[in-house]
Amino acid sequence: MNRINILSYLEESAVKYKDKIAFSDEVSELSFGKMLSAARSAGSFLLEKGFYKKPVVVFMKKSPDMINAFLGAVYAGCYYVPIDEEMPEHRIKLIFETLKPEIVIYDDTTEESVRELLGAAKGEAAEGKAAEGAATIAEGDATIAAYKYKDAAAAQENAEALRRVREKAIDTDPVYIVFTSGSTGIPKGVAACHRSVIDYIENLSEILHASEDTVFGNQAPLYVDACLKEIYTTLKCGASTYIIPKQLFMFPVKLVQYLNEHKINTVCWVVPALTMISGFGTFRTVVPETLKTIAFGSEVFPVKQFNIWKKQLPGARFINLYGPTEATGMSCYYEADREFAEDEVIPIGKPFRNTDIMLLTDKGEPALPGEPGEICIRGTSLTLGYYGDFTRTDEAFVQNPLSRAYRELIYKTGDIGRYNERGELMFISRRDYQIKHMGHRIELGEIEMTADRAEGVANSCCIYKKSGKDARGKIILFYEGSASEEALLKELKERLPRYMVPSVIKRTDRLPLTANGKIDRKALTSSEDS
Amino acid sequence: MDELIKILKEIHPDVDYDTNKKLIDGKVLDSFDIITLISEINDTFDVAIPAEEIIPENFNSAESLWELISRLAED
Predict the structure, then answer these.
(1) I need a labelling partner for A460 at 20 to 30 A (CA). Which of A175, A265, A392, A451 fits?
(2) B10, B27, B54 ranked by CB distance to A252: nearest
(3) Domains and CATH numbers, chain A
(4) What CATH code would you report for B2-74?
(5) Using CA of residue A340, residue A344, residue A346, residue A348, what is the dihedral sign?
(6) Cβ of A281 and B51 within 8 Å?
């Protein structure tokens, strides 16, 4: 029978690798067998409370339990929505406005925040009544219930209820929603279905040569789709994943020591995590001993840093991954197995199997060989679009202009690419103001909208500037108004996730305008050169 | 030391660097801040901080960071 539900990965591995540890962090670990029973319990618990086909907000500390809460939601026929424990309250509220959730799952770490978030919860959650009916509040017409993960995972399994849910489940049902930056100031929730995730993981695990011997060192946060790689490849192959403490990504020597200590052989990291290690000369002190596969993505790997890695680990495989959240994880890969000169750019290569990449010109025609065009994606990997927002979904997911006779959607990435003389796909630039900063996808427009709403700000413009020998990018915000730079920074810190807070904030009497009255970004960028 | 405080203040103007001794443990600085700091220190003091010195103990307070810079400048 063909695979139609991601849970079957867990179920098969739980038989084959029952006592093997699947996920661990510094303080806890979960075997495949334990995951299965806890996820089934959590699923039964949610069903018992009446949640089916609903978004389940998982607001927990990054941990093996958080992953299991995801799976519990899926067992209930629901879909999970991960929220970062460090996300500012303001942003969570924006997400909730779109999502209109009825249920939040939390843990000890986030209990306080959940209580504040749900405002009128009156501390019931804290008094241990969570399992009963929990902290609920009226927000408009809706009530949001909050339950502690521990209670859900300890509930009695209801095999019959789970079976009924599964019988009705189909592979175009959503698995998760992850929220990404939106240029209008409101985050967009990308919903993906079982079929897309399965398609992705089947192909990714082949590209990574993943097996039961694979030991991942996870860097990606659990609230972005980047973590699908470790979660579902581990479940599919009976591999294991160590969730690396976030703090180690500030301390390169300790990070490499951690990799060696846990015999990690595979990493799928954002580029800045890798360049931080090579850029500080870490290899003079400590060298990765067990690392065999290094996949990287999110932004361009500077060749100088790449060569340091390659020279240090000549036997390892280096794989460049490229793909937007809207097409479920990654869409293209390139095994960087040849030499690169420092002025070269590492290609993004070719599409995954069962994914097609089309380069389209502004006229909607295929780009000629060597000509740049917008990277458009076709295939099962296309997600379900933006949750609760058909307008923005319809703008980005459109009818394939090359096949007019039947319904076929493509996703327009907004990335410009071209094929090089070797026939390898190259990323060139963005066609809008979306940036990649420290591995995070950010719409500069969202920062501007947030700044514009601040007290004493009349108008603002955000630029991203890479400079210096290490090509470190800085987000720079210019604004007009009476607010002090310090006060504005404070306000932005309260409203934006940390990675979106500008590194430099500059008050200006008047933002420069172009001939047709738009803010002149080029003038602002060059003003930073002097 | 004043120059170092100036660099730190540019990253987080709202932090009192005289009293805060938990810049790392208290999650005041993140990885991007550390990279910025190291690069600014390199430019301002002409001191390259080697990887083995990039450890929490050296970054938890302005004072310990200043000690590190002074030590490296002497070598």
Answers:
(1) A392
(2) B54
(3) 21-169 (3.40.50.12780), 209-322 (3.40.50.980), 435-527 (3.30.300.30)
(4) 1.10.1200.10
(5) negative
(6) yes
